[in-house]
Sequence to fold (138 residues):
Amino acid sequence: MSLVGNKSAAEYNAWVARRQTFRQEFNDFFHTGQYDALIAPVSTIPAAKINGTKMVSALATSTVLYNVLNYPAGVVPVTHVQGDETMEEERWKGREAEGYAWMFLDQVYGRGGVYKAIMKEGVGLPVGVQVFTQLCGV
Fold:
């Protein structure tokens, strides 16, 4: 996210070349593994309010890959937000040694209130998975 901004033609071309190299590596991985498709999360939380995630842009990491590589991906709904779902602080707070980023999670589930707003006004929203399949000949 910190790399977003104006680029010179040379910088732009360098980034496109890096993307193409990564795209080829991903293509090789896909074919070597003989995968038909990949199923991935759309987001780590259901849909939030507009501008509700401005402090937690890392939530987009599960969807950015296919956008950056310029591959098609579709979203399939599999369930919906239920009113009785909660995320208790005990599940993540104080567990940094296990890889939990408490500052980030506090924005999502704690004081930042992103998840609370979803639970308050988002009951019934669809929750899905992202399905990616590679185009033939790419």
Q: What stands out?
A: The two ends are 27 Å apart (CA to CA). DSSP finds four helices and three strands in the chain. Residues 56 and 63 are 14 Å apart (CA to CA). The chain has a mean pLDDT of 80.
